[in-house]
Amino acid sequence: MLDIAGELRAWCAAQREFALATVVAVSGSAPRGPGASLAVDAGGTAVGSLSGGCVESAVHELCLDAIASGEGGVHRFGYSDDDAFAVGLTCGGVLDVLVTPVRGQDPVRPVLGSVLDAAAGGARAALARVVSGPPQQLGRALAVHPDGSYEGCLGGGAELDRAAARQARALLLAGRTGTAELGTAGGLCGQPLTLLVESAAEPPRLIVYGAIDFASALARVGAFLGHRVTVCDARPVFTTPARFPDADEVIVDWPHRHLAAEWEAGRLDARTAVCVLTHDAKFDVPLLALALRAPLGYVGAMGSRRTHEERAARLRDEGVTPAELARLRSPIGLDLGGATPEETALAIAAEFTAVRHGGTAAPLAGLGGPVHRRVGAPFVTKVP
């Protein structure tokens, strides 16, 4: 749902009636994962996508029916060997799609609006919806906030709502979209019930140290990928907003001092990528000694193999352990064969993307199994 948050917020503000179709489960190969949504209003206007076109027409009709009847439900779509043009996914996967009407008096409307308003204001919030369980509870929702407070109800009593809010809060604080299993009586008691929890969280961070032309290209690629980009260097003559128009922040400071302040302020996490492009020992060594101990998802450093070996020796002299040093991606980036700043930026971004999502960085043509693998990495959406 958060992939179309901007449009949905406008529809809610205008009191428009619509139906929301959301992927709640995927098996096999499918273009998009849980949380991908398509919304259709009473006039037939559609925003969003579920499968890149495979099932949209059928889901569009289901949404119009839900608006008219006030009844939603879960629908399954898969590939048909007998008729490749039947409603389904020609990539061979199976999608379970929850269709929920959002009309004037439907209980999900204020809950949905609360999450969208919080996200638009830069606050963290989660939408927890029942995607399997008793038919009368399908689509019921809670808006859950970081302090554990919540709005809405799941239709099973206060204990169920409290248990669901605890589960949703845990996913929200981790910045993840995922499912949670519990029972209709709360905890594991009662009939099984599954929640889809969608977390509106801050975008992942990309911190680039070194105000060079490669940094400008990397900031541009990082912004395109939806990261909040910071460029930092101790040299004010090079570290200017005019040189890095795609960065959200341009900071003049010693890199290790800046990173230490970010860590102390709690602004670093497993979704943060740090790229060290200075290849100057007086900057690199104190910075990397700190970065390799910080709770970062990716740490990479630019330089030749000779530079890397010399830098690694200095880091060992500073007390960096073998396990910490093994976290360092150096020379930085994947072997794409390019050399320009833009090509290098692409190689670096490809590497930290693969690390975040557990990818192999190998050509898909040489791999077996589904193209779209579902791994335990966080799925985070930058809310418009």
Structure description:
With 384 residues, the protein is of the alpha/beta class. The chain has 10 helices and 16 strands. The protein has helices spanning 5-13, 56-69, 108-120, 158-173, 213-224, 255-264, 281-291, 305-317, 322-325, 341-357; strands at 18-27, 37-41, 46-48, 73-78, 94-102, 125-132, 141-144, 150-153, 178-183, 192-200, 205-209, 228-233, 249-252, 273-276, 298-301, 328-329. The strands form 3 sheets. The protein has a 6-stranded parallel sheet, sandwiched between helices. Strands 3-2-1-5-4 form a 5-stranded antiparallel sheet. Strand 11, helix 5 and strand 12 form a beta-alpha-beta unit. Helix 1 crosses helix 3, helix 5 (213-224) crosses helix 10 and helix 6 (255-264) runs parallel beside helix 7. It is elongated, with a radius of gyration of 23 Å. The model is unreliable at 81-87 and 374-384 (pLDDT under 50).
Please tag this protein with its features.
31% helix, 6-stranded parallel beta sheet, elongated, alpha/beta, 384 residues, single chain, 5-stranded antiparallel beta sheet
